[in-house]
Amino acid sequence: xxxxxxITGATGMIGLSLTKDCISNGIDVIAIVRNSxxxxxxxxxxxxxxxxxxxxxxxxxxxxxxxxADVFYHxxxxxxxxxxxxxxxxxxxxxxxxxxxxxxxxxxxxxxxxGAGSQAEYGYVQDIIDSRTIPNPVTPYGIAKMASGxxxxxxxxxxxxxxxxxxxxxxxxxxxxxxxxxxxxxNKALMxxxxxxxxxxxxxxxxxxxxxxxxxxxxxxxxxxxxxxxxAFGESRPLREYVSQIIxxxxxxxxxxxxxxxxxxxxxxxAQDLFEDxxxxxxxxxxxxxxxxxxxxxxxxx
Length: 302
Known about the structure:
Elements: E1 4-8, H1 13-24, E2 28-33, E3 49-53, E4 71-74, H2 88-107, E5 112-114, E6 117-118, H3 140-159, E7 162-168, E8 170-172, H4 181-190, E9 195-197, E10 203-204, E11 206-208, H5 209-222, E12 227-231, E13 237-238, H6 239-250, E14 256-258, H7 272-278, H8 286-301
Helix pairs in contact: 1-5, 2-3, 4-6, 6-8
């Protein structure tokens, strides 16, 4: 039975949802947060939450005396901006940080280590992405994610720790960055500004933040052997349909332009094995997710 979890990246979009799920289910959370984080106040106030300040580069310096946990979630990652994702040196540092996280998990007595892989590990795929799809990353970010998953799995095997590597696809929600496609479209739609989108016919899969957090929470509770999963909604639609849904929900008069209809590649994801293993499938439809984002934006504006 899980009594305590440790989470790096707890103030991120998925980490925050995961933290709230754990606390609401009676699990104590040790949240490792950067000293410079401006999002610490977003964490829930709870006697079950302990905040530990540390940069991910210094995880090996944390004193684990009298600090134990059952499951370790490593969600923190350095260099997530669009520019940094193409910086080999920045991305390579994350491999070492991930291994430091495994070492910390072992010192805390954790029986499970759950990382945060990415859709970028698959590269460009036109077919359905399922358990048979061989990862083929093409960016430094994707390569570092794949290497981190492989090396942490090897280290966990040596230490006798269950290793779970969820490859997370496109997650959206009120906590999303302003630079993502969904955030940009919502913000422009609310201001009735022109919206320009590339490749409107490209299929994509969007998963709401609370569903992503719940799925990671359930992995820690139910999965007892080392696995890799695809974390996604499990249904894809052309990008133009998502944009049209946003326009409809905002009541916007924005003009929409699609610069190309060339499919090139997209995201058609089969996550059925995950749904079956954790006994859960995403609950928040894209329509409801967008309504929540709009409500959040309008509340903030007030």
